[in-house]
Amino acid sequence: MVTEAEARVLAHGSTILLAAGGHITPLALDTLRARRITVMRDGVDAGAADLAPPADIRVVAVAGDHTSLALKAEVLKYLRGRGLSAHDLGTHTTDAVDYPNTAASVAYAVARREAQAGIVIDGSGIGSAIAANKVAGVRAAMCPTALLARYGREHNGINVLALGSTIVSGADACAIVEAFLGTAMREPRYIRRLALIRELEGRSR
């Protein structure tokens, strides 16, 4: 049984696994919701539950290629305006750089848990998503709309968002980022599928 006192000491945005037949008191349930804590049940093992991206994101790594500067600046301003810690990993000039390198800097930060989420930007966002997905533990998707960002987060547990600087405006990008950061992955059936993705990563090594 999870009581309200126990719920209060759990970390914000964490995930707990409720044993079969386990119970949460009504007050504890309110506290868990307020602290954005995900409760897993219905046969999701602890290893799979740990794959769900954090619901309460405080640190975001951001990087983009030479086409990204204006959009990246707007995204960083938006993140910092929300009180988040946003790490600008480059690039900082219009000199040409290769998107696999900028995407990798974010992907490794997320995989190493130096950041709880990442945002990568290039002309279309497609290349950066492909590159970021080569890093084990990273699930990146190019999302040109807020709806796709919400689906990507809720259904697929993406932890890196890719944006196209030639595709979305600054205002649209901020709406997409808001959906990405504000959507939690909670359903056991979706989280179980992340374990299958992890198995595919293992097979490819």
Q: What's a concise summary of this model?
A:
The protein has 205 residues and is α/β, with parallel strands linked by helices. It has helices at residues 4-8, 26-34, 46-49, 69-81, 99-111, 126-132, 146-156, 170-182, 188-204, and strands at residues 15-17, 38-40, 59-64, 85-88, 117-122, 140-142, 160-164. The chain has two domains: 4-52 and 186-204, no CATH class; 59-182, Ribose 5-phosphate Isomerase B, Chain: A, CATH 3.40.1400.
Task: Write a structural description.
- With 205 residues, the protein is of the alpha/beta class.
- It has 2 domains: 4-52 and 186-204, no CATH class; 59-182, Sugar-phosphate isomerase, RpiB/LacA/LacB (Ribose 5-phosphate Isomerase B, Chain: A).
- 45% of the residues lie in helices and 15% in strands.
- The protein has helices at 4-8, 26-34, 46-49, 69-81, 99-111, 126-132, 146-156, 170-182, 188-204, and strands at 15-17, 38-40, 59-64, 85-88, 117-122, 140-142, 160-164.
- The strands form 2 sheets. It has a 5-stranded parallel beta sheet with strand order 4-3-5-7-6, with helices on both faces.
- Helix 4 packs across helix 8 (170-182) and helix 5 packs across helix 6 (126-132).
- The radius of gyration is 18 Å and the shape is globular.
- The mean pLDDT is 90.
The overall pLDDT average reads 90
Which segments are poorly predicted (pLDDT under 50) over 5 or more consecutive residues?
none
Instruction: Summarize the amount of helix as a percent range.
Output: 40-55%
CATH homolog superfamily of the largest domain:
Sugar-phosphate isomerase, RpiB/LacA/LacB
Instruction: Label the CATH architecture of the largest domain.
Output: 3-Layer(aba) Sandwich
The helix/strand order is: HEHEHEHEHEHEHEHH
The computed structural class is: alpha/beta
CATH topology of the largest domain: Ribose 5-phosphate Isomerase B, Chain: A
- For the termini, the CA-CA separation is 41 Å
Q: Order the strands across the largest sheet as they lie in space.
A: 4-3-5-7-6
| Shape field | globular
* CATH class placement of the largest domain: Alpha Beta
Radius of gyration: 18 Å
- For the secondary structure, the number of strands is 7
Largest sheet: 5 strands, parallel
Q: How many structural domains in the coordinates? A: 2
